Amino acid sequence: MPFIPEEVIDTIAARADLVEIVQGYVPNLKQAGARWKGCCPFHQEKTPSFMVNPASNTYHCFGCGAGGDVFKFVMAIENLNFPDAVQQLARKYNVIIPEPEPYRGPRKTGDTQDTGDLRERLYLLHEKLAAWYAAWLKNNPDSKAAAYFRSREIDPVFALRFQIGAAPDSWDAMMQWAKQEGFTLEELKAAHLVSESKNTPGKYFDFFRNRLIFPIWNEQGRVVGFSARQIEKEQGGGKYVNSMESPIFKKGRILYGMNFARRDIPKKGSIILCEGQMDVIAMHTAGCTNAVAPQGTAFGDDQASILRRYSDTILLATDADSAGMKAVLKDAEILLPRGFHLKVVSFPGGKDPDELLHRSGPEAVRDAVEKADDFFEFLFRHAAAQYDPGSPDGKIRTAGMLLQYIRLLESDVAQDSYLNWLADKLKLSVETLSAELQKASKAVRRPVPADRQQTPKPEEKSTGPLPLSQSDPRMRSVFSELLRNILHHRACVEKTAKELPPDYLDDGPVSQAVMIQVQAYLDGEWEQGPSRITRALASCPLDCSEVFSLLTEEEKKPEPDAIALRIVDDCLGSIRQKYLRLQIAEVRKQLSGLPDGEERRDLLREFQNLTRNLTEMGKKERRK
Q1: What is the structure's pLDDT at 555?
Q2: Which of 39, 43, 62, 188 is most solvent-facing, going by the fewest CB within 10 Å?
């Protein structure tokens, strides 16, 4: 944990306005007397129980027990550690942090990376690169990318707002630009903006080439990645190529356009969930500025949780084809158990919002949105088109299809209402349908989203799953041995600082103690590491007894540096191999059942890279 002076932390805490910060994530936060009240962003609830006290600059949720100060809120909502949360708030409130050289993991000789942390460098890289791509498109009107861009007839105002650009038809134009801007190859690799040649190891080229570029923003409006569309049918690769995940880009937590839509969602009272970037841009062009889309992956649980913070009404706007229908049904399976009210937007005369916009104009798009059908009305029409609901067999099939989704409704009142509605539609008794629903519910339990599960009261609250460095006996032993040696040998902590990627340090007490001791060394205060560890872990909810035991332990017979370094080398090798195997297992799990397409090809490339790294690491270990 990088050391930040207490006086700087106090200055940030004094300047930070927690109410202002929380409002950025809790749109329904309202003043209630001397405090502010809204729905908790950390768990699902309908009755607001999340309180902010501006006098003390603290928050507390009476539903799930979450609470703390402005730093803890930013840490929890943005999934940041303490130093990163402090740095984010410092930027917002113009507080300068006198930073020593931070710990960023392995470095290559001659690396001249600035003192800012890697995340900040990547944010800056993406922000500047988005502007460069946009400028390139504007300044090269005779390029194929510009010709394709004009063929899409995107409103210039919205092309500018969404900062649409283009990547040159060049192997290294972006790399040359980045070099001139002071960015290193290591930073480009960390952002996955370059690819390594298969034929010439060590030779890199631009990841995005000869494509239309769409910057991807997070909720707070920072560019975190790119989506690139092919401009020629014979062009290699998929129709869209997306940024791979990086320290600042987690595609499962990104909703394209949310940075623009979040301001208008409270006014519109709903969110339009589209399929892709062009659909979102078309919706915004037509005045439907509450439109967003999943980014580079199928819609998932994390994205549903983000939507729930803004509205409980979702309009599903997918393509008018079989794939679009499947997407509607899959999204419904995720959203209905969370209490969302769902509607479905149909696009007459067009396959999607973009097509309808260009065929019939913005009024036609707005009209389609205003006429969105209730999800179950839409589903009934879909079933009736396949089966004759007037025939016995048609009634059975139609009822089966709709009951499959009625059972997902979290509210008993909602289930009863739709059972009565369906009974009237099919001319069946409510009792008959209710009996069928009970059978279906017993056969398949109604799913309970993670963020809707019973949350223990604060005094009963557990710490949840233990971090790997504490739950895995082997890793616990490895991290303990590593900490023991870096506490007693300066050469060992120097080696660890150079070779251990910070991403492999989780929230376990021993792992955090390793991070703190490394940072103390980098700050020139290696001897102060133990006191820093003690202070940092004082309020840790996990069992820290092993750390404190190591801190008070005296080395009976000091090991020579050479032996200690060998031990540390073994520890670092074990940690790297463990985390590589975990990454491989996770990618393999994602690949399982994933249909062929752009996402699968991206994952396969990632899987091959990880496997190759693990194989090479194993060879090195055997040569020792």
Answers
A1: 52
A2: 62
Cα 296 to Cα 523: distance, rounded to the nearest angstrom: 40
Residues 73, 18: contact at Cβ < 8 Å? yes
Residue showing tokens 């927690």 = 18
CA angle in degrees (0–180, nearest 5) for 292-607-570:
120
Beta-carbon contacts of 425 under 8 Å, excluding residues fewer than 6 positions away, are: 380, 389
Superfamily of segment(s) 6-92? Zinc finger, CHC2-typedomain (3.90.580.10)
Domain boundaries, the chain: 6-92, 118-249, 255-371, 380-452, 468-623
This prediction's pTM: 0.61
Q: Which residues of 359-397 are buried (b: 16+ CB within 10 A; e: fewer)?
A: ebebebbeebbeebbebbebbbebbeeebebeeeebbeb
In single-letter form, the type of residue at position 542 comes to: L
CATH 3.90.980.10 fits 118-249, yes or no: yes
pLDDT along the chain (624 residues), means of 10: 70 87 86 85 82 78 80 83 84 75 46 56 94 96 95 94 95 96 94 91 93 92 92 80 90 91 88 94 96 85 86 89 86 93 86 89 94 95 90 92 92 92 93 87 55 42 65 89 91 92 84 89 83 70 76 64 91 88 84 78 80 74 56
Rounded Cα distance, 204 and 261, in Å: 37
Positive or negative, the Cα torsion across 457, 460, 461, 465? negative
19-23 CB contacts, 8 Å cutoff, 24+ apart: 19/52, 19/54, 21/70, 21/73, 21/74, 22/52, 22/59, 22/73
Phi, psi dihedral angles at 256 (to 5 degrees): -65, 130
Count the helices and strands in the chain (H runs, E runs): 28, 17
Identify the CATH class of 255-371: alpha beta
Question: Has domain 468-623 been given CATH number 1.10.530?
Answer: no
pLDDT of residue 214: 97
Written as six digits, the tokens of 390 are 């007037």
Integer Cα distance of 585 and 591 in angstroms: 10
pLDDT of residue 63: 81
Asked whether this chain's domains 255-371 and 468-623 adopt the same fold, the reply is no
Q: Is 98 helix (H, G, I), strand (E, B) or coil?
A: coil
Q: Compute how many other C-beta atoms are within 10 angstroms of the C-beta atom of residue 218.
A: 20
What pLDDT sits at residue 423?
A: 94
Tokens 């009863």 map to which residue? 416
